[in-house]
Task: inverse folding
């Protein structure tokens, strides 16, 4: 492995209070030098980073890679490469595969497939319950031993408060978060979008904000009861933000995430029965977006995650109510956040790096999240000002189901480095050994 010298970029690492132009030297998969002008060894490969931001590698703690079971819509390899193309050096794979990732062997399979992909790191998330059926707890000790970094029945809310309580008690023992999809199923049953004026006009059954918020407060109270760590997935409402803030003010072990689409799109995107804007939780209102952006800014919501969910074209080409939920997000996440938060003054680049790298690493106890000397060399280099038009046909992911198709966004990954190896470089479908050139849209 040749040494790498990232030359002249803006080093942004909130974990060290770093925000200045300088060089970054990588030797033997570790960060060897940070800041100032670095010469590097004789055989060093120089990557020009003028005008680019060099940050700790982005980490997505919530994505669906579909393998095993739906390799026709995504595989661990294509998902890991799509992640790298989006600037992510690591992703956490949700367990709603077929079969469900609810045992040691299934976790081990994902670990091995992730290693074979040789792109972004892949960390498995095990199921809370066997088969995600909400009845019997899966054996988390064996799953954690095999490499699971958290547990979740994502896609299926844990309806039983007793089961959730027990899950949180076990999680405390293994020091992992329990991730919950907050949805009260009897309130959301049959719903396909946000409940409100737009759903009434379109004649679609809605999902009220309270379906999310009831489960948010339940989980927070159970975390208080058990001392376990609950992580609330893809928050979408103003009320949820207020409840999370309430829990944190009382020292309860609650963390939360929000997705780029819930920070940028409202229920208006559903007009025309646009199935690429169908997701769960659904797109909400402008007031919800405002509250979510403020929560990301002040840290009430800890991190940004994609909820990358590829589907086959034919599946999305159905009646709105029958179409599956979810959109692809790994290759647009950075640009959506830059365009809708940074460009509008709601967030600064150090905050973006913190919410997409430093904090995910800390909360999920993962390698990376820092440019500290001696640390693992997982690094994202991105152009903060590149303008580009979203064309899903050019995605590395197999998924094409994006609500951003045709939109012009700002910000794009230029180079992604994992363990000291270049796994993505803009303009190339595979890593090469030439110096990075700044790409302009």
Result:
């Amino acid at each position: 492995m040749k040494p790498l010298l990232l030359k002249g970029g803006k080093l942004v690492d909130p974990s060290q209070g770093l925000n200045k132009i300088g060089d970054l030297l990588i030797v033997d998969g570790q960060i060897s030098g940070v800041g100032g002008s670095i010469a590097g060894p004789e055989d060093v490969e120089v990557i020009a980073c003028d005008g680019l931001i060099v940050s700790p590698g982005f980490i997505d703690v919530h994505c669906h890679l579909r393998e095993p079971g739906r390799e026709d819509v995504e595989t661990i390899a294509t998902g890991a490469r799509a992640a790298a193309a989006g600037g992510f050096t690591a992703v956490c794979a949700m367990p709603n595969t077929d079969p469900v990732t609810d045992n040691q062997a299934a976790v081990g399979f994902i670990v091995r497939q992730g290693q074979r992909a040789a792109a972004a790191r892949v960390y498995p998330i095990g199921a809370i319950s066997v088969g995600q059926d909400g009845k019997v707890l899966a054996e988390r000790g064996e799953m954690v031993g095999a490499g699971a970094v958290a547990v979740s029945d994502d896609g299926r809310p844990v309806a039983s408060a007793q089961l959730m309580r027990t899950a949180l008690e076990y999680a405390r023992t293994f020091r992992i978060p329990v991730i919950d999809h907050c949805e009260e199923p009897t309130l959301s049953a049959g719903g396909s979008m946000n409940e409100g004026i737009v759903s009434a006009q379109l004649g679609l059954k809605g999902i009220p904000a309270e379906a999310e918020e009831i489960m948010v407060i339940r989980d927070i109270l159970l975390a208080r009861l058990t001392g376990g760590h609950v992580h609330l997935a893809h928050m979408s409402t103003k009320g949820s933000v207020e409840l999370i803030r309430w829990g944190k003010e009382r020292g309860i072990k609650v963390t939360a995430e929000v997705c780029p689409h819930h920070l940028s799109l409202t229920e208006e995107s559903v007009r025309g029965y646009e199935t690429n804007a169908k997701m769960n939780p659904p797109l909400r209102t402008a007031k919800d977006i405002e509250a979510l952006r403020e929560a990301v800014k002040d840290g009430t919501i800890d991190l940004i995650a994609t909820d990358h969910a590829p589907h086959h074209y034919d599946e999305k080409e159905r009646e709105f109510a029958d179409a599956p939920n979810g959109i692809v997000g790994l290759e647009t996440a950075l640009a959506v956040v830059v365009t809708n938060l940074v460009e509008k003054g709601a967030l600064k680049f150090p905050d973006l790096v913190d919410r997409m790298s430093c904090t995910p690493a800390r909360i999920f106890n993962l390698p990376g999240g820092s440019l500290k000397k001696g640390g693992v060399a997982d690094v994202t280099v991105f152009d903060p000002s590149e303008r580009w038009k979203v064309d899903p046909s050019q995605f590395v992911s197999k998924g094409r189901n994006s609500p951003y198709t045709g939109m012009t966004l700002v910000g794009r990954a230029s180079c992604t480095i994992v363990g000291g190896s270049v796994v993505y470089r803009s303009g190339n479908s595979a890593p090469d050994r030439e110096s990075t050139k700044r790409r302009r849209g």
Remarks:
- The radius of gyration is 21 Å.
- Residues 209-226 form the longest helix (18 residues).
- The chain is about 30% helix and 20% strand.
